[in-house]
Amino acid sequence: LVIDRTGDLLRASPKVLAGAIGEGAAVRLIQLAQGLDDRTVTPDADPKSISQEETFATDLTDRDELHGHLVRQANSVAARLRAHGLRARTVHLKVRYGNFQTLSRSWTSPRPFDDGHEILGAADELFSKIPIEDGVRLIGVGLSSLDAGVREEQLTLDSMIDDGGVDREL
After folding, report:
1. What is the dihedral of CA 20, 25, 31, 36, to 10 degrees?
2. Closest to 134 measured CA to CA, from 102, 160, 157
3. Which of 80, 102, 129, 133 is most buried, judged by most C-beta within 10 A?
4. pLDDT at residue 40, as a whole number
5. DSSP state letter for 154
6. What one-character-per-residue DSSP string does 26-78 give?
7. CA–CA dist 2, 26 (Å, integer)
8. Does the pLDDT value for residue 5 go beyond 50?
9. Crossing angle, helix 23-33 and helix 14-21, to 10 degrees?
10. Residue 86 in contact with residue 114, Cβ under 8 Å?
């Protein structure tokens, strides 16, 4: 009995499947293959991590081209982070070569962030130390150590000017 795909499971004899893995497990697998599952799904739960990666049709060796992908990914994960009202402390970089060897590097900040420029800066720093001469097949940026901390807002001149008769126009 060889089962590689859900369709194989659905075509298998329940009796043969039960003989191989036990009746209870066989019934449960068949139910799951049919989409029958009573477990609660919580799609609105805060994510534990946020990431984006891209696989290329050919191996890339141009650092500037790969940097362009990092820019888009850093901005994308930053936007998703802010959409969830979260901030991160750790940036992850994932690089997979054409031979499927995968390198992962990470950096953790002493303070939380949600800015694409900060994420890109950390990803670029990690990327600068990774060899790419043999060609990169996949690159990705991820964030973890997420929390819903209060964002430190930068003060503007308007917010600092006292309304007590101060002329705001220069």
Report:
1. -160
2. 102
3. 80
4. 84
5. P
6. HHHHHHHHTT-------TTSPPS-EEEEEEEEEEE--HHHHHHHHHHHHHHHH
7. 14
8. yes
9. 130
10. yes
The residue written with tokens 């694409």 in the block is: 116
DSSP 8-state code for residue 130: S
pLDDT at 62 over 90: yes
d(CA 3, CA 42): 30
Are 122 and 91 contacting, i.e. CB atoms less than 8 angstroms apart?
A: yes
- The beta-strand segments (E) located in 85-147 are 88-97, 102-113, 136-144
Crossing angle, helix 63-83 and helix 116-127, to 10 degrees? 140
11-20, 100-109, 132-141: which has the minimum mean pLDDT?
A: 11-20
Calpha distance 94→101 (Å, rounded): 11
Distance CA 170, CA 168 (A): 6
* Placement of tokens 């990327």 in the chain: 127
Q: Work out the number of other CB atoms within 10 angstroms of the CB of residue 25.
A: 12
Contact between 10 and 33 under an 8 Å Cβ cutoff? The reply is yes
